[in-house]
Amino acid sequence: MAKNEKLLQIYGEGAWVYLNKPDDGFGSPGEYKITLKVPKAKAGTLIRDIEQVITQEGKTNNTNGMVKKKPFKVIGDIVEFKLHSQFKPVLWDKDQNKLDEKIQVWSGSTMWVNCKASGYTKSTGTGATLLLGSVQIDKLVEGTGNGSDTCPFPKRAGSALPAPEKTVAL
Asked: Residue 105: beta bridge partners?
């Protein structure tokens, strides 16, 4: 492990979950990623550890005056940690069993995530990124989607729309 890295384990509620399939909305091949929401009262040690990695990166590269980029944001009583990876994380359940590939983990699931806070220096500043490792699901919120043929709406009686018109071939 490089000098400006630290292994962490974060427990929180997932949002913007891309653990089953990479987010390729910003280009291919895409990234696996998640935002973990952690109560501020439980995030102090994580914040301190990440800031130590950033400080050490600044000292190593003599960039202490540069802008510091943090992979988290404090929003009221919640801290949102942003994690990502090029590689698909291994997903586990509470009983240490691998999750079936067909299970879709959605926002609202709670989980432990192993990650590595890794320091970097770029022209835009010095910071740290959280590299996503394996994931253990505590409470699963499962769904379907991502091109699924399953309609996300309940059956409804009647319709407010007229039936489609039939076309006649000439």
From this structure: 142
